[in-house]
Design a protein that fits this description.
The chain has 15 helices and 16 strands. The chain is an alpha/beta fold and 372 residues long. It has two domains: 268 residues, TIM Barrel, CATH 3.20.20.105; 92 residues, no CATH class. An eight-stranded parallel barrel has the order 4-5-6-10-11-12-13-14, surrounded by five helices. A hairpin with a 4-residue loop joins strand 7 and strand 8. The protein is globular, with a radius of gyration of 20 Å. It starts with a strand and ends with a helix.
C-alpha cells in the first residue's frame, strides 16, 4: 500500500507527504504534465531547477510513440526521461474518448491513432499492462469519458468506469504479485471518481471507489472551477482520509489550485501553464499578461520583480517581447520556465500557508490581486 503521511489538517484541506519508490512528494503539490515523457519546451533538469517534485505522463500518447515496450526496455519512465523522481501516468482515457469514431463496448475501446490511423484497442487489462511497462510510481485506472454532459450519459460513463475499475484492480494485483516475485519496484493504482457536475453521481462514484482496494484516487471530468468546491466537498468527505487524492487536469487557473487544496486534494496536473506560455500568455501576481503586446517593447523590467525563476532573474519583458515577435524558440523555453515555476511555487505557498495557519489570508490576498 502506498504510504501517505498527513502532517496537518484544516477542515478537508491537509498537508502531507506521499512516499514513492522514486522519492517523496510534499503535498499539496503541482505535478508537471510530461504528456509524452517530456514537459513541452523544458528539459527535466529545468523542471528540477524550477522546483517540480513529480511528473505525469499520458499512456495514450506513449503507447502510440515510442511504445510501452520500449519504455519498459529502457528501465521505465524515470530512467527513459532522465527524471529520476516520482512519476504518475494517466490512463489516456480522456484523450481516447476525445477522438472521432471511437468504438466503445463493455470489453474496452477501439480507436485509430491520430498520427497515422493505425488501429488500437485498449481494455482495462491492457491499460494496466501498458502502465506497468511504462513503470510510473502511480497509475490511473482506465475510465470512460461521457459523450455529453447530460445526466444519462454521465451515469452511463460512471457505471462503466466502475466496472472497468474492478478489472483494473484484478489485473493490477496480478502484475503487482509478479513484480514482487521478480524483485521489481512497487507501482500503485488510483481509482478515478467520475460523475460530472452531478453531486449524487459524484457521491455514488466516490463510495464505489472508496470500497475498492486501491492506493489513492484521481478525480476526473472537472473542467472549470464553477461548482468545483461543492463537488470536491461531496467527494472528499466520502473518500478515505488516509489515501491521497489527485485532481486530474486542473491547474491552469490559480483559483483551481486554491479550491482544490481547500477541499482536500493533494496533487494536481495540467498542461495549461506551458501551453499558454508558448502562446505568450504569462502569469504575474496581477493576473496574466500577453507579452506580445506592443506596450512591452520598451519595458526593461523583469516579468515579475520578486520571482526567482531563471526567466525573471535574468531577462526583461522587452527581451521576451522581442523573442516572441521574432518567433525564437528561446521565447517558448523562458516563458514555460516562468509559468511552470509560478504554478509550482503557488502550490508550494499554499502548502506553507496551510502549515502555519494562514491559508484563508493567503488565498484572499492572492486571488483578490490576481483577479482584480
Amino acid at each position: 500500500m502506498l504510504k501517505f503521511d498527513i502532517e496537518k489538517r484544516d477542515g478537508l484541506a491537509r498537508v502531507g507527504v506521499i512516499h514513492t519508490p522514486h522519492g517523496d512528494i510534499k503535498t499539496p503539490a503541482f505535478v508537471g504534465a510530461a504528456t509524452r515523457a517530456t514537459v513541452k519546451a523544458l528539459t527535466m533538469q529545468e523542471m528540477r531547477d524550477l522546483g517540480s517534485q513529480a511528473i505525469l505522463a499520458n499512456t495514450y500518447h506513449l503507447i502510440l510513440r515510442p511504445g510501452a515496450d520500449l519504455i519498459g526496455e529502457a528501465g521505465g519512465l524515470a530512467k527513459f526521461s532522465s527524471w529520476h523522481g516520482p512519476t504518475f501516468t494517466d490512463s489516456g482515457g480522456f484523450q481516447i474518448f476525445s477522438l472521432p469514431d471511437v468504438k466503445v463496448s463493455e470489453k474496452g475501446v477501439k480507436f485509430k491513432s491520430h498520427i497515422d490511423g493505425t488501429n488500437f484497442e485498449m481494455t482495462p487489462e491492457s491499460s494496466m499492462q501498458d502502465q506497468w511497462k511504462i513503470g510510473a510510481d502511480i497509475h490511473m485506472a482506465f475510465d470512460h469519458l461521457a459523450k455529453s454532459e447530460s445526466y444519462e450519459d454521465m451515469k452511463e460513463a460512471m457505471e462503466r468506469t466502475h466496472k472497468w475499475l474492478d478489472r483494473c484492480v484484478d489485473e493490477n494485483n496480478k502484475l503487482a504479485k509478479k513484480a514482487k516475485k521478480n524483485g521489481e519496484l512497487e507501482q500503485y493504482l488510483f481509482a478515478v471518481v467520475q460523475g460530472g457536475t452531478f453531486n449524487d453521481l459524484r457521491a455514488e462514484s466516490a463510495r464505489y471507489c472508496a470500497s475498492k482496494s486501491v492506493d489513492g484516487f484521481g478525480i476526473g471530468g472537472v473542467f472549470t472551477a464553477d461548482g468545483m468546491d461543492e463537488m470536491l466537498k461531496t467527494v472528499n468527505s466520502i473518500l478515505p482520509e488516509e489515501k491521497p487524492r489527485h485532481l486530474l487536469g486542473m491547474g491552469q487557473e490559480p483559483i483551481d489550485l486554491f479550491v482544490g487544496a481547500e477541499y482536500g486534494c493533494d496533487t494536481f496536473d495540467c498542461v495549461g501553464p506551458t501551453r499558454m506560455a508558448r502562446n505568450g500568455s504569462l502569469y504575474t501576481k496581477d493576473g496574466r499578461i500577453n507579452i506580445k503586446n506592443a506596450k512591452y517593447t520598451h519595458d526593461f523590467a523583469p516579468l515579475e520583480p520578486d520571482c526567482e525563476c531563471e526567466c525573471c532573474k535574468n531577462y526583461t519583458r522587452a527581451y521576451l517581447h522581442h523573442l516572441f515577435k521574432t518567433d525564437e524558440i528561446t521565447a517558448k523555453v523562458l516563458a514555460s520556465i516562468h509559468n511552470e515555476y509560478f504554478i509550482v511555487h503557488t502550490v508550494d505557498c499554499i502548502r506553507e500557508a496551510l502549515m502555519n495557519g494562514t491559508f484563508a489570508k493567503y488565498k484572499a490576498e492572492f486571488l483578490s490581486r490576481y483577479y482584480k
